[in-house]
Amino acid sequence: MKIAIGNDHAGPEYKLAILKYLNENGHIVTNYGTDSTDSVDYPDFVHPVAQDVDLGNVDLGILICGSANGVAMTANKYQKVRAGVCWTKEITELTRQHNNANIICIPSRFTSIPQALKMVDTFLETDFEGGRHQTRVDKIPLSC
To answer: Which residues contact residue 53 at a Cβ distance below 8 angstroms, ignoring those fewer than 6 apart?
Structure first.
């Protein structure tokens, strides 16, 4: 699977752990995140991930910041992106099953690295249920 990952200064440790996990499991990963804990502007790292997902250059995206809200808000500006903030395995499962999320947004200040790895695994392994959920997902994008 092709995956794009990005993070701000609140997520380098998480990103490194996730990158290791993804590489060990044979995924092709494009890393747009910072490796530093020096303050940066999260949109600079979100836009390349969201653009890759929006254009279909990757299958899924992973974004990490302190609360995950800023990265989710930024990513969801893209027409074909459905970025969900996830803080438990169960929320992750539902955001894939019911919302067909294609980017997981992980709040590093509210999850542990082991928890984040379980969420990433769940995100990659869970399928969209379709059916009644497809009708709802179809109503998400604005048609300007």
So the answer is: 4, 60, 61, 75, 78, 80, 81, 102, 103
Query: Are β-strands 2-7 and 83-85 bridged in parallel, bridged antiparallel, or unpaired?
Result: unpaired
DSSP-derived 3-state class of residue 128: coil
Q: What is the pLDDT of residues 87-140, one digit of tens each?
A: 999 999 999 999 999 999 999 999 999 999 999 999 999 999 989 999 999 999
Pick the CATH number of 2-138 from 3.40.1400.10, 3.30.1330.10, 3.40.50.80, 3.40.50.1820: 3.40.1400.10
Catalytic residue among 9, 65, 86, 105: 65
Query: Coil, strand, or helix at residue 38?
Result: coil
Any idea where the domains of the chain sit in the sequence?
2-138
47 is catalytic: no
Catalytic: 98? yes
